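User: Structure please.
Assistant: Input sequence and predicted structure:
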Amino acid sequence: MIGTSFEILGSLGMFLFGMKVMSEALQKISGDRLRALMRTMTGNRFAGVGTGFLVTCLVQSSSASTVMMVSFVNAGLLTVKEAIGMIMGANLGTTSTFWIVSYLGFKVSLSSFALPIIGVAMAMMFIPKKKIRDSGEFLIGFGLLFLGLAFLKEAVPDIQSNPDALAFVQNFTDRGLLSVLIFFVFGTILTIVVQSSSAAGAITITMAAQGWIDFPTAAAIILGENVGTTITANIAALGANANAKRAALAHFFFNIIGVTWAIAFFGPLTGMADWIMPGDPLEPDNIPLHMAAFHTGFNLLNTSILIGFVPLLARIVVKIIPPRPGELSASSEHVDYDAAFIPQTGEISLAEAEKDVMEMNRLTRDLVSGFAEIYARPSESLAERVAELKGLEKESDRLTIATNEYLLRCSAHQVSDATMAKISTLLRVVAELEDMCDRGYRLVLLAERRYRKKRQLSPEIDNTVQQFSQVVVRFVEFTAECIRRGVKTSDMETAIQLENHIDEFRKSLRKESIKRMRVNGDTVKSEIIYLDILNNMEAIGNHSLNVIQVLRTHE
């Protein structure tokens, strides 16, 4: 018995490892398209369902995709409404695994081809072309998945040789609603334990195919697995902000509402699966496909029923989970990459780092604008405003550390060459943006020092400072636009023109300042502050150009 248990665990481990390898390869092949899909997500709930479906089909784990969506909500990349639509799609997407396992794993003797597939895939891994290597990695995962499934089928003993076990299971069947509830709870616990609805589904399908459970029992376990898979996302959201908790709770509500009506109409629902799928469901060989039909039918009906109630569901979770006192808005918060139970999906999760890069650029703009505001009011004490801007500079330091760590962790996992190049680009951009924020805060300190030391210059000179700061802000805003949509050839020309304009402006103003100091030595201390301001603004322009050049080089 102990030996059999270890065989089952080993087979399940191979199945999960194969799924992980296959998922990572699929992400590398389509990571850019998936990230674009997530970035362009709108409030259209139907588009969200389609996006969630596609992402889960590629990641091959609804737990992974829903946790990823929760982390995107936490980072402000998705709203709660958008996430709910995508979660509905994720529930539909996870049914694809049931069909693959049910048909290829039990209707086709694919296990005899698993080793040859792995052998061919290994040869592909030595071919220099990246696409072929990624395809080879996908085939290795594919082969390991079905090899693990074949071992699992062999490890689970045939029910005919274990009549006592069958008698034990039958003690809990044929009890009507009570039996459905018992096996529903079993399915929930099983999914929580293995932390994968796909793995739990593979176990359930194997048990049914080996004759341990009948179709209604398997259907009840499937309903439990749909609830069990929501636990992972809720655990991942424990340390997140209120919006992420709401998205995870909405996932739970969506599934628990569906399971409630499914249990109430359990007979008609299983009958619908029997009607859709040919073959006698009493025969163990036919049960896997009937289970896949039941799983798909349930999730399709549940999505069709509840998609019209997405706004209501969003309002309910907002009412249940109010924002914490003093909590930052989702748009300015970063999700820690190593938060508990967040899946290592470096390809798609890179979008969170891109969002933080945009946030750092915004901080630079706010610091330069804040400097201009303080400089324009030299006779007023603006200590509170200076303290606010100091907070922005500290936020930029925090974002720099967190984003760099996040990017390095993403690069430590299996990602494509294009994604690795993107990570290198973002690391360089973050370094430039940190310097820009530091320069912006130095400008604030110079404006504050000017007030404190009573260093006055003529209104004409003060006006040139305001004009210069407006040019710098315009360049920073242009840089943000390039980060968001990419850099075109015409953008490089515009960036060079802006940087040249800033350089010439600074040189002209510097010459005028030196002339004034030669004529009137009393203004030297004021002019030194003025020159420091010019130098720091020019430096921000240089860093902005560097950012655009880095982005252009790696496109």
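The CA atoms of residues 303 and 522 lie 76 Å apart.
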